[in-house]
Write a structure and sequence with these properties.
The chain is mostly beta strands and 351 residues long. The chain is built from 1 helix and 37 strands. The chain folds into 2 domains: 1-154 and 315-351, no CATH class; 182-314, no CATH class. The chain has one helix at residues 40-47; strands at 2-11, 24-28, 31-35, 53-55, 59-60, 66-67, 72-74, 89-91, 95-97, 105-107, 110-111, 115-117, 127-129, 132-133, 137-139, 147-148, 151-153, 156-157, 161-162, 166-167, 170-172, 175-178, 184-185, 192-194, 197-205, 210-212, 215-219, 222-224, 227-232, 237-241, 244-246, 249-250, 261-263, 275-277, 288-291, 324-330, 340-349. The strands form 6 sheets. Strands 3-2-4-7-10-13-17-21-24-28-31-33 form a 12-stranded mixed β-sheet. The chain is globular, with a radius of gyration of 22 Å. Mean pLDDT is 86; it is low at 1-20 and 324-329.
Length: 351
């Protein structure tokens, strides 16, 4: 549910330029602290304790590179529609999620680097949603000390995802569009992947015996209501066994694969017949991943497959759940009473 609030007021106070200096807000145990300066996010993070909430403005911010606290961190968004007034919240560096970051929540961020979890460390219940991660994602380890209950929802990924050290992972309503050697690697241990759009390159180079696949080393997972498109000759899967595939749409035919359970899937579907605008091999905001005919491909939840179906359909604007500015208008000068007219429209949603 969304709520819209419009404020129109006049004030004789002098307002500083909204973009002159970035401010980061820390909510901690009922108190609110605003941080400025050259590195406000880093300063706020250092002052925060597990359970606190940090709100980030639009613009590029120097970021902590190591996250070891269970914080809730909200950005202004990354989609042009959701961050029209404030601009994207951009973290330019790679980040590492470390021990102590159980229950970390990241939302509404554009991360230019990689997101990695410390190898072989159990870090549970991390939620990352409505973010654009342009680098690779890795949760690795071979000790069996799995990170449990990680949740990835309504994100956009442009790199490879390696989820080797996870159990009971939830991955739904995301877009993965990676023109890389492989797209999803090492998902296992009851991972649930639903209503995602998964796009990658599949080919074989006979000159050096190199292969590119979308799904590599995937076992004991449930795939339902996804749209899986392989760019190229159809090398989609390598060592994909003991999984269940329900009501997924494939642009290649995998019905002969008997090492997995298949039911209700759609094979050999041409990509132009699925989306309004699939675009090229990489992600762009102008692309439109709504289905041309939502009734043509029905998922297990009774509504459409893909990102805008399932039990929690994605928001087209990728807007974070914290309130966002839709519109602002500030008069160029005060009136005869010394008052400055300001109009601001704000939207909020429940989750």
């Amino acid at each position: 549910m969304k709520n819209f609030i419009c404020f129109i007021f006049a004030t004789s106070f002098i307002f500083s330029n909204l973009n002159a200096q970035k401010k980061v807000v820390l909510h901690s145990q009922g108190s609110v602290t605003v941080f400025g300066g050259s590195q406000p996010f880093i300063t706020a993070y250092n002052a925060a304790s597990t359970g606190d909430t940090i709100y980030l403005p639009g613009g590029q911010l120097s970021s902590p590179t190591q996250f070891d606290k269970g914080l809730k961190i909200f950005g202004a968004g990354h989609h042009p529609d959701s961050a029209l007034v404030t601009g994207n919240t951009i973290l330019p560096s790679s980040i590492t999620i470390q021990a102590g970051a159980d229950n970390l929540h990241l939302e509404g961020l554009q991360i230019l680097g990689n997101v990695s979890f410390t190898a072989n460390i159990k870090i549970d219940s991390v939620a990352i949603q409505r973010c654009f991660i342009q680098g690779n994602v890795s949760v690795t380890g071979t000790s069996g000390n799995f990170s449990d209950g990680l949740k990835w929802r309504e994100n956009i990924f442009a790199g490879t995802l390696n989820m080797q050290n996870t159990s009971n992972l939830v991955f739904h309503n995301n877009i993965v569009k990676a023109y890389s050697a492989s797209v999803l690697q090492n998902f296992s241990n009851n991972a649930w992947l639903a209503n995602n759009i998964i796009v990658g390159r599949g080919f074989h180079n006979p000159n050096n015996w190199s292969y590119h696949y979308q799904l590599v080393n995937i076992t004991d997972c449930l795939f339902e209501n996804n749209i899986i498109h392989t760019i190229g000759s159809g090398y989609t899967m390598n060592n994909v066994q003991n999984n269940t595939f329900l009501n997924n749409v494939f642009t290649h035919d995998h019905s002969a694969n008997q090492t997995n359970a298949w039911s209700g899937n759609y094979f050999s579907i041409d990509i132009p017949t699925i989306f309004h605008d699939f675009g090229g091999n990489t992600f762009d905001y102008v692309q439109n991943y709504e289905l041309l005919d939502p009734t043509a491909f029905i998922g297990t939840s009774g509504n459409e497959v893909g990102r805008y179906g399932g039990i929690q359909a994605a928001k087209a604007s990728n807007a974070a759940q914290n309130p966002r500015f839709l519109f602002k208008q500030i008069a160029p000068q005060t009136n005869t009473n010394g008052e400055l007219s300001i109009e601001i429209s704000v939207e909020a949603q429940n989750e």
